[in-house]
Amino acid sequence: MCGRFTLFDQIKAIQKRFGINVSKLDEATPSFNIAPSQSVIAIINDGERNRLGQLRWGLIPFWAKDTKIGYKMINARAETITEKSSFKHAFIRRRCLIPANGFYEWKTVNGQKQPYLIQLKGEGLFGFAGLWEKWTDGEETIFSCAIITTEANEMMSDIHHRMPVIVKKEEEASWLDPNIQDPNTLKQFLLPIDSDEMKAYAVSADVNSAKNNHEGLLNSL
DNA sequence: CCAGACGTTGTT
DNA sequence: GTCTGG
DNA sequence: CCAGACGTTGTT
DNA sequence: GTCTGG
Questions:
Q1: In the complex, which nucleotide's C1' lies nearest to the CA atom of residue A88?
Q2: Distance (Å, rounded) from C-alpha A166 to C-alpha A133?
Q3: Can you tell me whether residue A147 is helix, strand or coil?
Q4: Does this entry carry the keyword Disulfide bond (predicted)?
Q5: What was the ipTM of the complex prediction?
Q6: Hey, is A151 helix, strand or coil?
Q7: Among A1, A2, A23, A79, which residue's Cα sits nearest to residue A12?
Q8: Which of A3, A4, A167, A220 suits A203 as a labelling partner, its CA being 20 to 30 A distant?
Q9: What is A5-105+123-194's CATH number?
Q10: Residue ranges of chain A with pLDDT lower than 70?
Q11: Helices (H) and strands (E) in chain A — how many of each?
């Protein structure tokens, strides 16, 4: 699955990597420990072009009576995404990319949890496949998102049996294209990334607490 | 028809 | 055990 | 995801 | 809003 990740590159690097020309965001606070319920950066196509914006991680469907449900909806399973009423519509109409430099997964051995940091071997930045929603109760309006997960590839399966979907660079434009609405076409973008492209190593359990957020979390044990 | 849930993960 | 907070 | 709280009353 | 269960 995916419940914690990093994004420490500057906005300019993100814009360059994803080909964004227009952005309301000037700078991003580097984070080495982004947790659910926090604000994340996302790329959304507004019908004309791709834009950078901020979303709360933890999807709140527009029909929710309150925002608590967002604590649970941090991931969406790729395998069942077209069947779930909470995700179905967003999958067709409200897809996004969530830029990251890496993500954490916990490996459980004899009841003990060991966090690992997973990154791409090549270019640092990549985009998670995400869904977003707009929710309002008349007083406040919240834009929120979920990260799509799939089965682990060979390398990841040693650590955990699920992992986030990382959209292939050459498929990013199509993933964001609002004109593409065929579920079968869209599902083709949700395959596990190749093991060859990834690297992983154990990191300090300091990452367990979302209150910890410093560069040292990236260090190999 | 109405009522009630709407999610994923890991663990047992 | 379950929910909230980060 | 993991960590940490989990409650009401009355009084200041 | 939309789907599932009764």
A1: E2
A2: 20
A3: strand
A4: no
A5: 0.90
A6: strand
A7: A23
A8: A167
A9: 3.90.1680.10
A10: none
A11: 5, 13
